[in-house]
Write a structure and sequence with these properties.
single chain, 493 residues, alpha+beta, Transposase Inhibitor Protein From Tn5, Chain A, domain 1, 10-stranded mixed β-sheet, 4-stranded antiparallel β-sheet, globular
Amino acid sequence: MAFPEWVEKQKKRGFDIKEIKGNYYMYERKSRWDKEKKKAVKVTGAYIGKVTPEGIIPVKPKLDTTKPIFSLEIGASAYLFSIAGDLLEELKNHFDKKTAELIWVVSMIRLIAPCPFRRLGDRYQTSWLSKMLPKLNLSKNAMTALIDQVGGSRAACAAFMRETMKPAPYLLIDGSRVTSKSEGMDRALPGYSKSNKYLPQLNQIYIVSASGEGERMPVFYRNVAGNIPDVTAFELTVEDAGIASATVLADNGFAFVDNFTNMEESELDLKYIVPLRRNSAEVELSQIEFEDVFTYHGRAIFAHMEERDGYRIYVFRDEKMRSKEISDFVGRAEKSNASAEKKKNFDPENDLHDIPQKTQEAIDKFGIIIFRTSIMDQTPRYIYEAYKIRWEIEQLFKTLRDTCEQDASYMRDDQGFEAWSFFGHITIMVACRILSNLRQLKLSKEWSLEGILDHLSRVQVVQIANQWRVAETTKKTQELITSLGFMFDSFVT
């Protein structure tokens, strides 16, 4: 039968929609083997929820009263609520109350203890989050409905990000590439990656706020097809974020003349800092004379600048990196010579490297970093430190992939990937807040993101005389909670 257009848009593979007395309901579609017909026949599976123009209203959860709960995790949940409760309130400005609470809870649980969506319900039921935000349905079917709703609400997701953006300056990172082999992902297309393996992937273009002393916060993203060159996605990302200007920090795979020309001719205020290869024709390293020097994290950095038509070339030499690269180079040559001497038909004339000569031939390239930039009014130190922020951001993405298990998407379609990305964005926003909090409290050397959440998650509340009470903790845990500046009194009632 023909459904209204708004119902048709919510159809998904593996699910059926039924019309009952003018209302529409979604069910799982399953199949079973019919022995008589000798073929698989379709059967109606579990009820998912009511279909409305605003999305799927999931079936209300059935509370399992047969399993008494005597203790709940509270440490990590309470800490996250204290540090990111404002994001829940902001989500309510763009989603209905229940959806906002589900998005926030899903993001927090996946930060505390990464797990598949189908296991979120169990984590929720054993966490104090189930008391702070009660009666949320995190069943498998409800998660399917939530993913569909959030994935189809890019406008609401973008509005949330614009409202929560930190101040300028903004840096545009040329993407965190996420691999996916799901056949339903239309945008998962083979594209360039650092490993040069053209795997099906999507590219997440990220805008990062670099406001404050050493503060880095990913504030906005767009997902683009994996085969789209980053430069063609930068302008739309800046427009979507509603910002006036940004500086592109790309990798050396971006260093093509057309890319530079496109950015320099852009109607938007797009600056760039892009590394060049050491054998770039832009500079002759043997002729370089370094006229400036400064320190970066206790390392001496020599600097040289050359003016071009509309851009600058900077050459930096990191003395610590230079020393290490020379040692590695000589060590590899010595190892190669030692292996050659063991050959059966060893020929000293042809098999041995002249290590002093080869080292001298390569001496100008050791420790060298070359940048091309359209920024014409800043010092060498500014250019160097600005690009180093990219390394810090890559470490943040690495934290997200390793700690929060966001290295690959297992979503089946583009809509699911959008939802997965939004949950991940909120997760990394909170992760950055935690890391910033640890730095401000001078705890970052003692505690990692994963370590502090794991430690706090061991703090439990227990039922004592029909009341919830915080269980006994070690002195170290008590000192940590005091240092973090939050108390359980406002959470346990």
